[in-house]
Structure to design on (283 residues):
């Protein structure tokens, strides 16, 4: 089994996406609304802008003060919805607590919602209809397919029930004919469920939450979390010290942190922006 390193796939896809952008008569445009000075958000936004530049997408950051009023953010979103030159709109999360995250997210027009978070797009996903899909779940499925990981008929355990990862990911796995279980903080006998699963998605957000003993041989492990250990180094939920045991002794597939799911999330955001532009042009 193997380390499911996304870097090679991302490099290949960036070249393909650049070609697709060049075929469009109008360059796609992505606008990212960022509120406040959250450090992680700043890093994520910079990474997204850099990838936009690599493929030839026009991008813009609207950076607002931490204490911005909700009405101001609302007006910006509504103006971007009307702007024919804007392909996709993204409200970078998290946002300050005085702002209504659900309300503002759902102000974005479904067709411009590159994050796939609106009620309309989430509803379409649940009903098996075409729409924009949350980027992390979409990236997980595409990464598994790239490495020819068999999904059909497999027992999949998703340790996360959020609207951003767990719920949309469950729908995508069902679409691929997997049998899906969602676990969360109130789940009983979690470790037993992990041992019984063919594919485990961990998005708990706790460094070293899982180790080699928790998994059966031949399990595919997708580590979604980005944590930082006591030394300040980036890590996932799965202990890095156990990577070798999991891959070489237990013959497991494993997405590394970094260079795994995080890379795929940004890639899917870019591709989804291009898809929106392609659909618009074909109409």
């Amino acid at each position: 089994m193997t380390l499911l390193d996304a870097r090679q796939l991302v490099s290949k896809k960036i070249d393909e996406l650049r070609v697709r952008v060049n075929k469009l008569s109008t360059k796609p445009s992505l606008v990212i609304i960022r509120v406040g000075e959250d450090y992680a958000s700043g890093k994520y936004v910079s990474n997204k802008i850099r990838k936009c530049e690599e493929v030839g997408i026009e991008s813009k950051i609207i950076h607002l003060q931490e204490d911005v009023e909700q009405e101001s953010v609302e007006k910006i979103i509504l103006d971007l919805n009307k702007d024919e030159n804007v392909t996709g709109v993204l409200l970078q999360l998290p946002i300050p607590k005085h702002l209504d995250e659900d309300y503002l997210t759902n102000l974005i027009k479904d067709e411009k919602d590159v994050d796939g978070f609106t009620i309309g797009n989430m509803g379409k996903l649940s009903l098996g209809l075409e729409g924009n899909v949350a980027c992390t779940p979409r990236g997980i499925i595409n990464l598994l397919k790239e490495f020819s990981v068999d999904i059909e008929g497999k027992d999949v355990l998703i340790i996360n029930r959020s609207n951003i990862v767990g719920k949309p990911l469950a729908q995508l796995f069902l679409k691929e004919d997997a049998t899906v279980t969602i676990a969360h903080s109130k789940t009983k006998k979690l470790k037993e469920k992990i041992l019984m699963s063919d594919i485990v998605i961990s998005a708990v957000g706790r460094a070293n939450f899982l180790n080699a003993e928790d998994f059966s041989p031949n399990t595919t492990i997708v580590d979604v979390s980005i944590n930082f250990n006591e030394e300040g180094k980036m890590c996932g939920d799965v202990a890095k010290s156990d990577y070798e045991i999991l891959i070489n002794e237990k013959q497991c597939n494993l997405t590394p942190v970094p260079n795994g799911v995080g890379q795929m999330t940004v890639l899917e955001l870019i591709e989804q922006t291009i898809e929106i532009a392609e659909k618009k042009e074909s109409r």
Observations:
- The longest strand covers residues 29-35.
- The CA atoms of residues 9 and 142 lie 10 Å apart.
- The chain has ten helices and ten strands.
- The two ends are 44 Å apart (CA to CA).
